[in-house]
Design a protein that fits this description.
single chain, Nucleotidyltransferase, domain 5, globular, about 230 residues, seven-stranded mixed β-sheet
């Protein structure tokens, strides 16, 4: 069983299955492109840390740290997630637990790739992005503007103070719609459903490839229950 799972994980079978179910939902107009991004930390079981010594042999696409980070709480992995307005995963990124959300925001959004059922390029651009203060950086806002993506992200207190201190040179405050931001609880509910799977709530997989495949498979099951 594990050998087959590992083979499917390396071949990208779960990723393609998730993209196909997303494609059919998009063709039916069932995807809400008010995309929300966020992250959650997962404790890693002690057996997940037995990945061999540093410098050992590993796959070229497997990170050296196996997406395991050491913090005050022990070994952790962070799941970065983009979901649609109905709380269904669109893209997944797995990193060590101490990795900051703002660093992963751009690569996470660039993983959104919903194929067309007919001719045409995959859809990669959300209509709008909702995120919390962890993603409030000038660089990320500029990236969203370049891609023509509207966003609802609250401004950090220190950023607001710095802008006001500069007076007219500080620029205008970023737009923020409180009513839209209230929908951000959708991604928290999505994380709760994902963590309903025992193998996602606690990481037992030794490699990042296998754990990300497990999260992808769980995401596929969430989609299958909703369509």
């Amino acid at each position: 069983m594990y050998t087959r799972f590992r083979r499917y994980a390396l071949d990208g079978v779960f990723t393609r299955a998730l993209q196909q179910i997303q494609a059919h939902a998009d063709a039916a107009g069932d995807i809400d492109w008010l995309v929300q991004i966020g992250s959650t930390i997962v404790r890693a079981h002690q057996h997940a840390a037995a990945t061999g010594r540093k410098g050992g042999r590993h796959r070229q696409d497997e990170p050296d740290d196996h997406a395991l980070g050491r913090s005050r709480g022990g070994l952790t992995t962070k799941i970065h997630l983009a979901c649609d307005g109905k709380g269904r995963p669109l893209a997944i990124l797995v990193t060590p637990g101490q990795r900051h959300d703002s660093v992963c925001a751009r690569p996470l959004l660039e993983r959104i790739r919903v194929p067309r059922t007919g001719p045409g390029r995959p859809r990669c651009r959300p209509g709008q992005v909702i995120a919390d203060k962890a993603y409030s950086s000038r660089g990320f806002r500029a990236y969203l503007r370049r891609r023509g993506i509207a966003h609802t992200i609250p401004e950090k207190t220190d950023q607001r103070r710095h802008r006001l201190r500069r007076g007219g040179h500080g620029g205008r405050p970023p737009g923020f719609d409180r009513e839209t931001y209230r929908r951000r609880n959708v991604i928290e509910r999505c994380f709760n459903r994902l963590k309903g799977f025992r193998g996602i709530a606690t990481r037992y997989e030794k490699t990042a490839t296998s754990y990300e495949a497990a999260v992808t498979l769980a995401s596929f099951l969430l989609w299958a229950r909703s369509v």
